[in-house]
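Preliminary data (for renewal application), ribulose-5-phosphate complex.
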Amino acid sequence: MVNQDELKKMAATEALKYIKSGMSVGLGTGSTVKFFLEGLSLLVKDGMKITGVPTSVETARIARTLGITVNDEFTGKIDIDVDGADEIDPSGNLIKGGGGALLREKIVASNSSMVIIIADEMKLKEEFIGAFKVPVEVFPFLHRNTIARIEELGGKCHLRNNGNFVTDNGNLVADCDFGMIKDPARLESMIKLIPGVAEVGIFTSLCDMIILGTPGGHRTIKIKKV
Ligand code: 5RP
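Predicted structure:
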């Protein structure tokens, strides 16, 4: 029996093959990315030169502890971004933000030439995403009104940790249940249009490649972006 951590590590290890010396590397957030950071630190110790662009304070802290150079103020296109996800559909649409880092994760992904998502195979859904509640980062100011407007789109939202979860950006996270999401791109843009929303954890047209850990070995899915 292969456990979930071994599957995460398998995906992370495969993603390391895409990292070359001299690259700028978006560093995602979460337990799967932690395995990637550990592997990356070994490459750095062997002489690889990379600049990490962290998607959270926690990732920056882990990376620095492991001896990986990080730059929070990177300018220009990031060569490659490696991040995890909470749910993935076969077209590469994602739900992210389980760790609350969705805003910086989306900024880094959208500024990267290539985005690789690493996960255990349980994260890949056969058809639609939506079993995992959609995290939405909202500004604290009038946040109840913002959440009411998100709910007008058909979701049922709960403030994470009763409002005691605060993101790296000083905002709150509402976890919103929309059921199965048939049109993720449309829902993403509808939520994003609401004033008071900082970011929504639906990621469409950003992922280039998914690497899954499976009991039979890693599985790579290349995504053709629309
Ligand atoms: C954090 C994220 C993570 O990538 C997502 O929650 C997956 O985490 P894990 O690898 O621990 O399952 O979006 O905001």
